[in-house]
Specification:
Layout: H1 7-20, E1 26-27, E2 43-47, E3 53-57, E4 63-64, H2 69-81, H3 102-106, H4 117-128, H5 133-148, E5 154-155, H6 157-165, H7 168-179, H8 187-198, E6 200-202, H9 204-210, H10 226-239, H11 245-251, E7 256-258, E8 263-268, E9 272-277, E10 280-281, H12 288-301
Antiparallel strand pairs: 1-10, 2-3, 2-9, 4-6, 5-6, 7-8, 8-9
The structure holds glutamine.
Binding site for substrate: 67, 117, 163, 170, 194, 242, 260
Subunit structure: Homotetramer.
InterPro entries: Beta-lactam/transpept-like, Glutaminase
């Protein structure tokens, strides 16, 4: 990748290609409030170590970050508990869908990794212990606002309520873990906090800005240490797209975390923090065009963790 001036035309071209794409995937509807979002939308934002942020498409339109929030709660939980967190959640890809319950039965209520729903519920439960949901959500918002250098980041209460009203599966995961002694707080309290963290709304620009600590941007170590950042990136690469993680690593070659709102945060260590958004999802619940757009960006720039 040459000078910065080379990058904007690449983003413009990818934006134009995505507008023409015939297969846009399917918008998630198991959270009814998300089903209203039009699948025609696309945005991409790329933040560079020098502080510049380039965009294409609707980069200032807010969307539900959903499971991308799991990266930030993991960073907070590791900051609070350190390696003790790993007694309650593993670090292996699950090879199953994001909301799967099956491994919990054979693996004693210990979720495979912090990015599937069961694992993210444990992470939220860990930071909730001894505190109120309001305090925890305040901390998540403060973390995001500081990371993004932007105070205009909020929770969409309608999305949180919509998920709460249809959250049987996450409640089942939480109850199952409680039965194994791997949940400290009442399942409804942990799930309620989790639904609200997932309902945080951000724009692609804000998300790419917030991801700068993961690319090792100057000054980022004050939020999360470099050693921890490397480990979070390793988990994003191996587990960030659930049963689509291998495919994402193969096609894109960068750590990434998806959400059912259609967002993806991807990190080119030392080079860029990338956010894309397109609400249509593929079979694994990851943004169809978001994946394609990052794949094209990685190919055009040569950005890859594999050299
Ligand atoms: N809040 C969503 C859920 O728990 C998050 C899932 C996702 O983004 N993959 O189902």
């Amino acid at each position: 990748m040459g000078a910065l001036s080379d990058l904007q035309p690449i983003l413009d071209r990818i934006g134009a290609e995505m507008a023409e794409a015939p297969d846009r995937g399917r918008v998630a509807d198991y959270i009814p409030e998300l089903a209203h979002v039009s699948d025609r939308q696309f945005a991409m934002a790329v933040c560079l170590p020098d502080g510049q942020c380039l965009t294409s498409g609707a980069a200032d339109t807010g969307f539900s970050i959903q499971s991308i929030s799991k990266v930030f709660t993991l960073a907070i939980a590791l900051g609070r508990l350190g390696d003790q967190l790993w007694t309650r959640v593993g670090r292996e890809p699950s090879g199953l869908s994001f909301n799967s319950v099956v491994q919990l039965e054979t693996e004693n209520g210990i979720p495979r990794n912090p990015f599937i729903n069961a694992g993210a519920l444990v992470v939220t439960d860990a930071i909730l212990t001894g505190r109120t949901p309001r305090e925890v959500l305040g901390e998540v918002l403060r973390f995001l606002r500081e990371a993004a250098s932007d105070d205009d980041i909020h929770i969409n209460k309608a999305v949180a309520a919509s998920e709460q009203a249809h959250g049987h599966r996450n409640l089942a995961l939480a109850h199952f873990m409680a039965a194994h002694g791997n949940l400290v707080n009442p399942p409804a309290l942990t799930c309620g906090t989790y639904f609200h963290q997932c309902a945080i709304e951000m724009t692609a620009r804000q998300l790419a800005m917030a991801g700068r600590f993961l690319m090792g941007a100057p000054g980022a170590a004050r939020l999360v240490s470099p050693a921890r950042v490397r480990r979070i990136n390793a988990l994003m690469l191996t587990c960030g797209h659930y049963d689509g993680s291998g495919e994402f690593a193969y096609r894109v070659g960068l750590p990434g975390k998806s959400g059912v709102g259609g967002g993806i945060l991807a990190i080119a260590p030392g080079r860029a923090s990338i956010a894309v958004w397109s609400p249509g999802l593929n079979e694994q619940g990851n943004s169809q065009l978001g994946t394609l757009a990052i794949e094209r960006l990685a190919r055009a720039t040569g950005w890859s963790v594999f050299g």
